[in-house]
Amino acid sequence: MKKWMMIVMLCCVMLIGCSEKTYEPREIVSETDVCKICNMSIVHNAYAGQIALKNGDYEIFDDIGCLMEYIEANGEDEIGAAYIKDAAKDEWIDVFEAVYVYNKDYWTPMNYGVVAFDTKGAAQEWMSTEGDGQLLTYKDLHDFKWGIHE
Amino acid sequence: MKKIGFALLFFLFISQTVYADFDVQHAIDAAKPGEVVHIPAGRYHGNFIVTKPIMLKGEEGTELIAEKNEPALRIENTANITVENINLSGKNKAIVASNVDGLELHKLQIKDFHSGVHIQRSKNVRIHEVNVTGNVGHYSRKGNGLAVFKSENIIIENNTIEQVQDGIYVEDVKRIVVQRNKVTNSRYGTHFMYTSDAEALLNTYHHNVTGLMVMMTTDIHLESNTVENHVDFNGYGMLLYDVQQAKIKHNTIKNNRTGVALQKSSNVHIETNDFQMNQTALEGTKVSDDTKASNNNFTGNILTARSDKQGFKLESNYYDDYSGIDLEDNGLGDVPYVAVSSFGQWMVRQPVYQYFVESPSVILLTSLDQQINKTEKNMLVDHTPRLAAEGTKEKNKVNVVQMLLGLSLILSSLWLWKRGITE
User: B373-419: per-residue pLDDT in tens?
Assistant: First the structure.
């Protein structure tokens, strides 16, 4: 009996070891967190982003534009997960799956005017109250011209 | 005695409410363009709106108190407005001005608000002698002291701001002068974003996270400011991010975690500043070749300069840790000063290392470092280091009075000595 128990436990340990590692978002600490790219303190949490690296480190960003600049410079290989705040719900959503809306008059910490949502419906609902914008995907963000627009 | 007490209380009560019947909004509405609306002393609750060119003038004890989350005073779509000598208190914003051409805010006391003054899409604005005091608490839960968005021709001077998020926040503004202001205990003293043709002169910033935060800005002049005691975990005296064409002159940059940091910037000239007792005086990452620090004084800093591989130019600065000689007697050291320091680089990455800065092992390491770094030719090398700090040239001047006094003392002593011998 003891032998069987040992075998079952060993299998469980092996299964846990083989399971895919998950990378959970962490809470923003406004007292100490600064954007990895522009060095601004993170005081507008509703626009913050973060990257959980495979080595366990976190990189924090004040704006999706800064997060994209980090990805452009460092690539995606070391990224375990990347999160951005949903502008409508104040919840972390997956950067790669999110739906983005751009309008030059939307205010964001870096004034890039790009905000994120979990679904296309949420983005359209946002536009109905905050003004029409251009729908973008993660892929579009790579070619996006970050900066203030006239 | 009791009667006198009641009488005093009565007058105290009366003094605050005697003008309560004065209807501020009615007086504003009734005023003709160009007229002065005198608001008597008293406390006026409401959310007042101005849409015509008038002057609002309070007297000692005039206070506008905002109701709900609306601003105490809104100024919209008009020109030539002056607001003077008024106290404001409330919850959200004290003053919001939109689409105004010609606005003067003078002698205002703003307290208990989330944000002080918010100006947008306006031009020809002057804000002076305004005091903003934010609430106690962390800056992430507060608004800005004076904020200007999408505007042009702005002057902000002689204001005192404390305990807010950013003392003076400037975004997308053309032509602005920020001078003689004092900002303390806030996140950033003055925060420029997407601004062009800007000047920050003679301001005092201390005990903020960062004194001057300049981002995505072109053509800025930072001169004669005092920037000190920014020692927080992320503190900087001045931080320039993505800035083109900047002049940083005659500033006193003292006791900061990092004195001046440059990131992704080009054509920055750092001249004749005093860097004193900073953990790192000057730091540069991704700066262009045309960035130069010249004729500055570096005294008492733990680390003079650090950079990435690109580096930046050092020219004719004074360094208190320079130990070269001047055989040519031209005031410049004959051996280049090399600012590269391994321990300094480590210390910047791990601030806790600063506690070992004068330990025997670090002194040995630094000595070895200096010998090795003598071969460094370009990165963080000053080929013409000055031997004396700027302002110490007059040390050879002769003080005639002191010289005559000394001479007379010597002669008197000699005479007394001689007299003693002969007797």
Answer: 666 666 788 999 999 876 655 455 678 888 999 999 999 999 998 88
CB B167 within 8 A of CB B190: yes
Q: Which residue of A has its CA nearest to B241?
A: A38
Structural domains in chain B, sorted by start: 16-203 (2.160.20.10), 209-340+376-409 (no CATH)
Which parts of A11-57 are beta strand (E)?
49-53
What is the ipTM, given to two decimal places? 0.82
Nearest to A41 among B172, B234, B242 (CB): B234
Alpha-carbon distance A14 to nearest alpha carbon in chain B (angstroms): 38
**What is the spatial distance between Cα A110 and Cα B25, in angstroms, rounded to a whole number?**
38
> How many angstroms separate the CA atoms of B156 and B199, rounded?
10
Task: Nearest by CB to B139, from A38, A43, A148: name it.
Answer: A43
Condensed to tens digits (0 to 9), the pLDDT of residues A21-68 reads 789 999 999 888 999 999 999 999 999 999 999 999 999 999 999 999
- Nearest CA-CA distance, residue B241 and chain A, Å: 7
Domain boundaries, chain A: 30-143
**Closest chain B residue to A105, measured at CA:** B150
Is the CB of residue B165 less than 8 Å away from at least one CB of chain A?
yes
Sequence letter at residue B168: I
CB contact (8 A) between residue A147 and residue B216: yes
